[in-house]
Design goal:
With 611 residues, the chain is mainly α. The protein is 72% helix and 4% strand. The protein contains 26 helices and six strands. The longest helix has 39 residues, at 572-610.
Length: 611
């Protein structure tokens, strides 16, 4: 950030250190906190520190935070998963941009814009803020849901759509602008070919070279070198993409996706995440600095109508498209609100549009304020939607009406694991009560004839309603480890005589269940792994008896070790030593078994000869 003094850097860091925690303490979005503090620091309110020039310089620098954000998202998305998302990206994304762009263009025509300016502005405003939408959805937990994944797909397409919009902005020009560059159709085609070629280079280099180079750096065991290599990866891809006139964010995303299978993925994520969080906070602060309050004060109602129109049209289109994708009303509504704002690419497009003659200076300033205020409105609207949704849910009962039972089995968690238990109990006519915290899951399994009830098994009132005091057994089949532990603790303390048969996700989960005195534990993939290994051994030429003996030996050893490791859970050094010696122990056991098998065969031959 050339031109920004050390004193101003200190002010920015103080603002970032205060705004985020204060916003969380107030129960609002951190993004909104950054926007507000940026508004206070900027030149258009009380002007504490930063001029308009410096605010724009900070914004330009902080845009690298979006690049880092897309790189980290790419790290989480393996190429196979990206390929699986192609329908949502290119179909849903294209539908959103085209429909929203045309509706906003129609709105522009109604307020007196030329068709060229209206269409260009409509398409620019159809693009949402990748940085803000992803940040807010991550804060609210929406990013891991289906509507969050659909939202990400739409944002990814929008990043792609920004590239041709920037390239073809001169086609929307109402009048020629002095000094503006002009391109022939052949030059535009060559630019597209160049861009695709550079993307191919990034893909090839990323796939065959990056992981190897990171391995060389990792061998040095110099932490700073690994951090520098991680940042260099992102910066290098950014430079390559910018040379082609393409989106730096798109390049960073591609680089991240190519490294998603790398063994250094977690290290890269840990090294880059602090920079990404800091720069994104700085980005939203800089956005707040650029808000022209004077323009808003001159025509507040016009700007508010424009902001409301933008948000309503984008949210409405996304809501309808979400419903067509099979989303329930609530998730579709949150998808629409999360992507209802204008985006950072709009600022770039407005600048390009003004330079090419597609937009006037006054229109550019007005639309910039509208986009900024729409970004500020998003976290507020999501917060209001969340409050209204909770109020609606609070009217409904917190669990289904449960049948009276006696001598039954309670199954907590009705996913894949719990359903298998239920099917066998049903076949044997053993009564059970199945509980699941997901209303959608309960509704889904009911469509296929399964009997399950909505309710949180970690709540005392629901266990009481399920007649836990009369139950013969309790099957703990909850997928989430923490929810499983809360339920186990409650059942153990409230119903100490009720036998618990628990599903454990891993050894650590099993050890935590052992802490509560629960001994009937089955690790969820353990038996299936043993069974497939037995089939493998038979296919490799071992007899049924020999394969069964090997699997039995391993199972006995591993179950014994699980209990022994539990006794040493607090001694990490001894656990590591046991892990290293485990292979030799198994080899010895297998050798002893093989020797015993030979001895038994010789004994059998001797007895047969004696007869």
């Amino acid at each position: 950030m050339l031109g920004v003094s050390l004193h101003e850097v200190a002010i920015l860091l103080a603002a970032l250190a205060i705004a985020g925690p204060l916003a969380r303490w107030l129960g609002i979005s951190e993004v909104l906190g950054y926007l507000v503090v940026g508004l206070l620091l900027g030149p258009n309110t009380i002007g504490w520190s930063f001029s308009d020039y410096k605010a724009k310089e900070i914004l330009h620098f902080a845009e690298f935070g979006i690049v880092l954000l897309l790189f980290l998202i790419g790290l989480e998305l393996r190429p196979k998963r990206l390929w699986a998302m192609r329908n949502a990206v290119f179909v849903l994304g294209a539908e959103q941009v085209i429909i929203t762009g045309l509706l906003l263009a129609g709105f522009g025509l109604l307020i007196g814009l030329s068709w060229q300016a209206a269409l260009f502005a409509g398409l620019a405003l159809a693009l949402s803020s990748t940085a803000l939408a992803l940040q807010v959805m991550e804060e609210t937990g929406d990013l891991q849901t289906r509507h969050g994944r659909l939202g990400f797909s739409v944002l990814l397409f929008q990043d792609l759509a920004a590239i041709p919009l920037i390239a073809f902005a001169p086609l929307f020009a109402v009048s020629a602008v002095a000094g503006a560059e002009t391109h022939t159709p052949m030059e535009d085609v060559l630019a597209v070919i160049k861009g695709l070629g550079l993307i191919a280079v990034v893909v090839v280099v990323g796939h065959f070279v990056l992981d190897y180079l990171l391995r060389l750096v990792a061998r040095t065991r110099v932490r700073e070198a690994m951090t520098a290599a991680a940042l260099l990866t992102v910066v290098g891809v950014t430079i390559v993409m910018q040379q082609a006139g393409l989106s730096a964010s798109l390049g960073a995303f591609i680089a991240g996706a190519l490294l998603a299978e790398s063994s250094y993925r977690h290290q890269l994520e840990a090294d880059i995440q602090p920079f990404e969080g800091l720069l994104l906070g700085l980005f939203f602060t800089a956005i707040g600095m650029t808000i022209d309050v004077r323009l808003f004060l001159d025509a507040p109602w016009i700007i508010l109508i424009l902001v409301a129109g933008l948000v309503a049209i984008k949210a409405g289109v996304l809501y309808v498209l979400g419903r067509f994708q099979g989303l329930e009303p609530g998730p579709a509504r949150r998808l629409g609100i999360a992507l209802s704002q204008g985006g950072e690419f709009a600022f770039v497009l407005f600048t390009v549009g003004y330079a090419s003659g597609a937009l006037t200076s006054e229109m550019t300033e007005l639309l910039t304020v509208v986009v900024t205020l729409s970004m500020a409105a998003t976290p507020i609207l999501l917060k209001l939607e969340g409050l209204l949704s909770r109020r609606r849910k609070s009217v409904a009962p917190v669990y289904d009406s449960l049948p009276d039972n006696d001598g039954h089995v309670i199954i907590a968690g009705f996913g894949r694991f719990g359903q298998i238990v239920a099917r066998i109990l049903t076949a044997k006519k053993i009564p059970f009560t199945a509980l699941d915290i997901s209303a959608e899951q309960v509704e889904f399994v009911r469509r296929f004839g399964a009997q399950a009830f909505y309710g949180d098994a970690s709540r005392p009132d629901i266990l009481e309603a399920a007649d836990a005091d009369k139950a013969r057994a309790f099957v703990l089949a909850i997928d989430d480890v923490e929810a499983s532990m809360r339920t186990a603790e409650l059942v153990r303390s409230s119903y100490p005589d009720l036998p618990i048969f628990a599903r454990a996700r891993n050894r650590n989960h099993a050890h935590r269940l052992l802490d509560l005195g629960i001994t009937d534990i089955q690790r969820e993939t353990f038996l299936s792994s043993l069974d497939i290994t037995k089939q493998l051994l038979k296919r490799l030429g071992l007899s049924e008896r020999e394969a069964g003996r090997i699997i039995h030996t391993f199972r006995t050893h591993d179950e014994r070790r699980l209990v022994e490791d539990y006794k040493l859970a607090s001694d990490l050094d001894r656990l590591r030593e046991r892990a290293r010696s485990d292979v030799k122990t198994l080899e010895k056991l297998f050798e002893e078994d093989a020797a015993e098998e030979v001895r038994l065969r010789e004994l059998a031959k001797t007895e047969e000869g004696a007869r």
